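Backbone-to-sequence.
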């Protein structure tokens, strides 16, 4: 049995610019996480480090799909949470 699928150039609505933007955001998150790990392992950062390495695509993919009027909930390891528009949350001084 042979299964074939026709591919159409219009199947994906994601352009090259969007792929590059998403990749850059994932890379920025990874580099930040590596720096946090470096600071933590050298005992230069107080507290605990809950790293996000390997999960960068989750954050970028979710944020890429958000519209300006969408709301999200952020929860930290200290059980602090904020609900609202992502830009409003960070503008209010929320530090996860």
């Amino acid at each position: 049995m042979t299964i074939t699928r026709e591919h159409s150039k219009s199947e994906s609505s994601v352009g090259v610019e969007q792929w590059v933007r998403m990749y850059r955001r994932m890379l920025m998150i990874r580099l930040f996480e590596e720096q946090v790990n470096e600071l933590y392992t050298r005992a230069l950062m107080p507290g605990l480090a809950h790293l996000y390495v390997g999960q960068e695509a989750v954050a970028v993919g979710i944020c890429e799909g958000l519209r300006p009027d969408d709301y999200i909930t952020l929860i930290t390891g200290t059980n602090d949470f904020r609900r609202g528009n992502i830009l409003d949350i960070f503008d209010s001084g929320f530090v996860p």
